[in-house]
Amino acid sequence: MRYVSTRGKAPVLNFEGAMLSGLARDGGLYLPETIPAFSGLNDLDGLPYEEVAFRVIRPFTGDSFSDAELRGAIDRAYARIEHTAKAPLRQLAPGHHLLELFHGPTLAFKDFAMQLIAQLFEIALKRSGQRITIVGATSGDTGSAAIEAFKGIDNVDVFIMFPHGRVSEVQRRQMTTPEAANVHALAVTGHFDDCQARLKDLFNDHAFRDGVGLAGVNSINWARVVAQIVYYFTACASLGMRDTDFTVPTGNFGDIFAGSIARAMGLPIRRLIVATNQNDILHRALTTGEYRVGTVEPSISPSMDIQVSSNFERALYLAYGGDTAAIAQLMDELKQGGFTISQGALHALREQYLSGRVSEDETLAMIRTIRAETGEILCPHSAVGVAVARRHVEPGVPMVTLATAHPAKFPDAVEAAIGIRPPLPPHMQTLFDLPERVTRVENDVQALKSLILDRRTQ
Ligand SMILES: *Cc1c(COP(=O)(O)O)cnc(C)c1O
């Protein structure tokens, strides 16, 4: 399978190449040239998660990994998810189900992709003898998932930038307490969008990029999107492989984009619904056609406090029919603050996605409502999803809302809603006793470069 950049000026790569590079050299994002149709949809019910994962992922990896390597990586990755179903469905109300993606080691859905790509990186790097430096930007959950997945993996250093003071204490501690020498947590003065912008600066400096063997594991990494396709399949298999709606709490557009790939592979997904908090650039873009960057308003669902939604570029690329020149032009305009989506592309996007926005008060109210109606405690991100989903539930069509994090990861928001601090699961009880290791850094690309050169263990 061949991977091409959304901006059309980067080399065509195979799966391994696209995975190891993350961002394409022209600043674009890699996508497969064609999306493979899935055969055997009706054979999936009752299979272990790992087996479904193998069947869904296999067509994307081409000759980059043998079947045995891929199966081994999947088995090791998902052994750390503390639920035999891995992504269990739980019923919230008649016709409305929660897809629980928070049973992994860092309690957010990011573990599904990160655990797998750490295993795939290890296989690829062992084979080539190459050493790499992973640099990531996080609004909280990507960073903890990356550090947890890559700690102690040979031939890799991991640097994670997070916005200082803007991640929850559990998120921060998950990044700052692992002891492995190859992982480094960096607290950047600024917002998540600043971290993301500095990450792009590092990647666009080709001398630095080649010098340290820079690799990216942010949600722009195609291998992460691929891993996230799997749970749409297991959810539909559990519901009898009939038309199903999905609502996805969305920030960087990775999880929901995986849903649109699942649909393109033939999964019977009827509507895909984007749920945003008050940082609603995606909702505004889909309703007005204007993709304009505002200022980030910190919220109680911080993993979605994003204005520039990186993976949206992939959706635009498909909506513009693969017109790479048009995408490169839009991304240039974005540097000036935004762009207008063409009528044709907007129409195509609206055929793919509905959207909704949820205020802070509505989020808190939804945590209360679901607690009262079902006894379940939602994390604030999942509550944003459930609130939007409830506006769209239709009789006869199951609705699945992705529950993206465990409530214990965001205890302040949950306590504000229902007066209860949800406890951490047993395997994380020591988190608050462990010493933290973190480096403060200014929102400045030169400062970052010297820090990375200085700290690498290689
Ligand atoms: C990352 C994250 C999101 C947003 O996911 P995207 O793929 O970036 O849209 C939502 N909720 C939680 C808990 C997350 O960690």
From TrEMBL:
Cofactors named for this entry: pyridoxal 5'-phosphate
Pathway: Amino-acid biosynthesis; L-threonine biosynthesis; L-threonine from L-aspartate: step 5/5
Record's catalysed reaction(s): O-phospho-L-homoserine + H2O = L-threonine + phosphate
Family per similarity comment: Belongs to the threonine synthase family.
Organism (species): Paracoccus fontiphilus
InterPro entries assigned: Ser/Thr_deHydtase_PyrdxlP-BS, Thr_synth_N, Thr_synth_N_sf, Thr_synthase-like, Threonine_Synthase, TrpB-like_PALP, TrpB-like_PALP_sf
Catalytic activity, EC: 4.2.3.1
SUPFAM superfamilies: Tryptophan synthase beta subunit-like PLP-dependent enzymes
Residue ranges of every copy of the Tryptophan synthase beta chain-like PALP domain listed in the record: 99-326
Entries under PROSITE patterns matching the protein: DEHYDRATASE_SER_THR
Record's protein name: Threonine synthase
Keyword Lyase in annotation: yes
Keywords annotated in UniProt: Amino-acid biosynthesis, Lyase, Pyridoxal phosphate, Threonine biosynthesis
